[in-house]
Design brief:
By secondary structure, the protein is an all-alpha fold. It has one helix spanning 2-82.
Length: 83
């Protein structure tokens, strides 16, 4: 009779250990999901900053290109009038 009473106890203990491990795994998963959400929010902010920076650089590039084009056109007109 002794072995029968210890068998359910060891099975119950194994089940309890499994549930405890599952609880710990779910807690780690929850922390990882929280960290991922935080990182996604930071990525969103960084991408928005990159968009603003890219737009600023594009505007600067277009301004410089327009100035250079005006300079080339005016040089062309000056050299054409000298002929």
């Amino acid at each position: 009779m002794q072995p029968q009473s210890t068998l359910p106890t060891s099975t119950t203990q194994a089940k309890d250990r499994s549930y405890m491990q599952l609880g710990h795994s779910l807690a780690r998963l929850s922390r990882a999901v929280g960290q991922t959400a935080d990182l996604c929010e930071m990525l969103k902010v960084d991408l928005n900053a990159m968009k603003v920076l890219a737009a600023s650089h594009a505007a600067q590039f277009m301004t410089v290109a327009a100035e250079l084009n005006l300079g080339i056109e005016s040089e062309g007109q000056e050299s054409g009038s000298k002929l």
